[in-house]
Amino acid sequence: MNYIELTLDAQDAEQAEILMAELADYPFESFEQEGARLKAYIPAERLAGCKGKVDTVLERYGITRAAYLSIEPQNWNAVWEKNFTPVEVDGRLTIRAPFHAPAAAPLEVVIMPKMSFGTGHHATTCLMAAGILDHDVRGLHGLDMGSGTGVLAIIAALRGAASVDAIDIDEWAYGNCIENIRANGVEGKVLPVLGGIETIAGRHYDFIAANINRNILISHLPAYGAALCTGGWLSMSGILECDLEMLGEAARANGFSVTGTAVREGWARLDAVKM
């Protein structure tokens, strides 16, 4: 698969993070940020359908230095493995690759690093993982919406959840999730599903973890409300700290009570309970 690398120079690191969140609404598959410089990668065949909208976003933020570069085909798995390092979450969890030594943390998850979001390196994945660790999920039925690697579903299963649906619209993520389910021995507990929000119709959950982006989260709230049992909890991230008020208002309008928030490196998590 051929990729396009979009490289841009923001005004500062904070604006680069905001732009990353904005671009996540489009089919970019990975991001690299170093200070104010941001690189975003998208399959070449998917750029044509959204390039005009992406350029509009860049113009709105006054980005004058941006370049699209065609990337020669390469072994992306080797590139990701080279740059993948273990991630620790508050001393309670380690997320590592199969080629790393076992961790001393109370809990560890093995993730094969590929082009799927959810290796734990992004602040939102750490926020969501910490949120799951804060809950007693033993015997519960959950949903990991926009599951990527499946890391959140796997964490919940390893902590005793009875079952977790791991749903993602991306075929690459779906395949990677299957690999990671096997690597962590949670077959039968984590069910990978290829599809979108329509796949949860008629299903019922005790908890939902959704790490996507603000606009999609807001559009999904009615479906989350319909699928959650009364008293069930919802944890959402993929948002910036400045998005908390808007997402909280939308959650309350859909029958949820906001129970808490958490912030990490400018990114945020919002927790709520279905009333």
Give a quick set of tags describing it:
seven-stranded mixed β-sheet, Alpha-Beta Plaits, Rossmann fold, 275 residues, alpha/beta
Describe the structure.
The structure is a single chain. The protein is of the alpha/beta class. It has two domains: 72 residues, Alpha-Beta Plaits; 194 residues, Vaccinia Virus protein VP39 (Rossmann fold), CATH 3.40.50.150. It is built from nine helices and 14 strands. The strands form three sheets. The protein has a seven-stranded mixed sheet with strand order 10-9-8-11-12-14-13, sandwiched between helices. Strands 2-3-1-4 form a four-stranded antiparallel sheet. A three-stranded mixed sheet has the order 5-6-7, covered by helices on one side. The N and C termini lie far apart (46 Å). The mean pLDDT is 89.
Structure at a glance:
This protein has 275 residues and is α/β, with parallel strands linked by helices. The chain contains 9 helices and 14 strands. It has helices at residues 13-23, 44-47, 51-60, 76-83, 123-133, 151-158, 171-183, 214-227, 244-253, and strands at residues 3-9, 30-34, 37-43, 66-71, 87-89, 93-96, 108-110, 141-145, 163-168, 190-194, 205-211, 228-240, 256-264, 267-274.
Radius of gyration, CA atoms, in whole angstroms: 18 Å
How many domains? The number is 2
Structural class determined from secondary elements:
alpha/beta
CATH class of the largest domain: Alpha Beta
What is the element layout, followed by pairings?
Layout: E1 3-9, H1 13-23, E2 30-34, E3 37-43, H2 44-47, H3 51-60, E4 66-71, H4 76-83, E5 87-89, E6 93-96, E7 108-110, H5 123-133, E8 141-145, H6 151-158, E9 163-168, H7 171-183, E10 190-194, E11 205-211, H8 214-227, E12 228-240, H9 244-253, E13 256-264, E14 267-274
Helix pairs in contact: 5-6
